[in-house]
Amino acid sequence: MGLDEKQTILRLPAERLYEEEIAALKKADQDTRPTGWQLSPRAVLTFLTGGKAGRTVITPKYIGNKRLVEMAIATLLTDRALMLIGEPGTAKSWLSENLTAAIHGDSSKVIQGTAGTTEEHIRYSWNYAMLLAQGPSDQALVKSPIYKAMEIGGIARFEEISRCASEVQDALISILSEKTISIPELGRELSASRGFSIIATANTRDRGVNEMSAALKRRFNMIVLPAPSDIETEVDIVQKRVGEISANYELQAELPEEEAVRKVVTVFRELRSGTTLDGKGKVKSPSGVISTAEAISLLTGSMALAASFGSGRIQDQDIAAGLQGAIVKDEEKDRLVWKEYLENVMKKRGSEWRSLYNACSEMNG
Known about the structure:
By secondary structure, the protein is an alpha/beta fold. It folds into two domains: 3-224, P-loop containing nucleotide triphosphate hydrolases (Rossmann fold); 231-364. 49% of the residues lie in helices and 13% in strands. It contains 18 helices and eleven strands. The protein has a five-stranded parallel beta sheet. The protein has a two-stranded antiparallel ribbon with strand order 1-2. It is globular and about 75 Å long.
């Protein structure tokens, strides 16, 4: 992919975004590489958690418990699939994408789980015009991302698996057990090549919507990704991702100062936990998801506001607009929750919070 092509793509996949780092790791990697892998497990870990490859600095893609990443990589060395579970914004999809990019160099084989996902999305479907014209054939077969991954020994990603109907989820059972897909129309079956696996993600907020069967759960190694354990870690994550995303979008604004990031993260952590950071005050939580991902989106949006309609430097008015949109989802209930937080918590925090408090109060009406 050339430089001009990169500049015209809205969102680069991880293997393109970090292709120089992957190339450096390949060159420096002296450890044994499993069949179908482009990097050794140790090199994959370095790609995800940061380090050096020769003179190239490898930026951390996942900031959190390193042991969880090691467990995820180890799972993909076995015949078990990997399930990443967590609250919204705990970097499940981001970790899934970067794991796949590091191991196979292609993170594009994705199924997005929704209420409309069918068994055909998991196995295969047909080009019905060709099917009617010439009957079942290889040319008429439309391969699913999982089918393609099985052919080449790659990794398929299944995002938000718990959004799919239970009978659709169960189409995975035979694939994960037998590592085959039967194609009765063509009188044959596809057997997975070595290296094939599936990384699925599941949102804990969806638990109970379409509960996974015990049979399917047994075929996954489950790893729970926690929310950032402390405010310093969350601030680091938000700053890093805002910098990456804003560079990709070429936003003509200064990156938010650490104080602004810390204020947003503080508000989110308190509303999420239902208590102030010092543990002395109780607060009500809004109906929506107040996640790390939302904080990243809020600050990126604030940069866009500042670049297009401001001085190019994020002001409290820009942050207030983002907070209003992120917190007030259910109009009446969330507006009252937010107003109560502003009056009982933010207003009492002193002069350094006064400007943000005024901007938020004006926005909330």
